[in-house]
Amino acid sequence: MSTPSLLILPGDGIGPEVMAEVVRIIDWFGEKRGLKFDVTTALVGGAAYDKHGVPLSDETMAKAQEVDAVLLGAVGGPKYDVLDFSVKPERGLLRLRKEMDLFANLRPAQCFDALADFSSLKKDVVAGLDIMIVRELTSGIYFGEPRGIITEGNERVGINTQRYTESEIRRAAIAAFELAMKRNKKLCSMEKANVMESGILWRDVVTEVSADYPEVELSHMYADNGAMQLVRAPKQFDVIVTDNLFGDVLSDCAAMLTGSLGMLPSASLGAPMANGRPKAMYEPVHGSAPDIAGQGKANPIACILSFAMALRYSFDEGAEATRLEQSIENVLADGVRTADLLADEGVTPVSTSGMGDAILAALD
Ligand code: NAI
Ligand code: MG
């Protein structure tokens, strides 16, 4: 097989700062584990606008379509707030998601023991938590027609439509079953089949797809109960698959079980390419954090964990992904903290590159 390819898009604000630490880690895997990547770096967001007048050049878009995985930092910042909507930094990100047709958004909620105190829940409820929410990203109520605000009689009516085709549900379900196969072979599908026809279809199609994955234990749950269960006993889940709207809310809820924005990775997957790998973009959940940009304070772990997800879900290097995650766990257990992870005053925070140093040392 040819050398796997990566497109790195650092972006704006803290994006380039956290991505610099990821690049050191990628280099480590090349030197110490013989895991070489063919890396291309390009501009996105405000940085691309400054140079090319657009938040994503056609050339970079074409590159994103051809590589095995895209790794993105963050885009945006106050400097760009005055720009016309059509060239705002976020449009670069939206173009990538749309043209790559990334229909499955993967949001893990993983609790590192050393940070369990950060959770708003009891330590034993979240310690060791490791679940994954797969959210359908390109259809559902955010896109369905008709939509708009109309006037009926003497009042306004706001309209959005939940609409799912079988094929849209099927491809999201397949992505979730494939993930479950790479994890613990347990999948819970959430909808509201009790009150929504789109939920009935969702349940039907997910059940149909399950015939191709007899090893995966499938369950169904109403999404409101799912919300309760996520807060009551999150460790009962492994992979959860749900629609765009429920997934938006449930994934934010699950993510916060585990603490800081600086720790949260994500992935967005599309259809399989000719080599069998899904189109994929990996990125931290956080934004460009203009309030701390340029100060070396940013926590690089969310971006590093996004690379770990790339290792596991794009490159079938699950053992190497675990190696990286374990190193992060060890560093945190040793008490190394960036400023965002500090609960008490007595500890001196490390810088962005200080955290990178510690993770590299732990990898060694
Ligand atoms: P943000 O995620 O950039 O920051 C929210 C808060 O969390 C800030 O106080 C920030 O300092 C802190 N924070 C975020 N990441 C951190 C890290 N790695 N380490 C330590 N602290 C961290 O969200 P905000 O402030 O709403 O947006 C700032 C800019 O980022 C805006 O221009 C927004 O449009 C853009 N944005 C971009 C996203 C992306 O590229 N995917 C996602 C969200 C926002
Ligand atoms: Mg949200």
Automatic annotation (TrEMBL):
Its cofactor is Mn(2+); Mg(2+). Coiled coil: none annotated. Binds 1 Mg(2+) or Mn(2+) ion per subunit. It is found in: Cytoplasm. It holds the Pfam family Iso_dh. It comes from the Bacteria. GO terms for molecular function: 3-isopropylmalate dehydrogenase activity; magnesium ion binding; NAD binding. Its main location: cytoplasm. Its EC number is 1.1.1.85. The record marks 142, 192 as: Important for catalysis. Catalyzes the oxidation of 3-carboxy-2-hydroxy-4-methylpentanoate (3-isopropylmalate) to 3-carboxy-4-methyl-2-oxopentanoate. The product decarboxylates to 4-methyl-2 oxopentanoate. Homodimer. PANTHER family: 3-ISOPROPYLMALATE DEHYDROGENASE. This is 3-isopropylmalate dehydrogenase. It comes from Celeribacter halophilus. The gene is leuB.
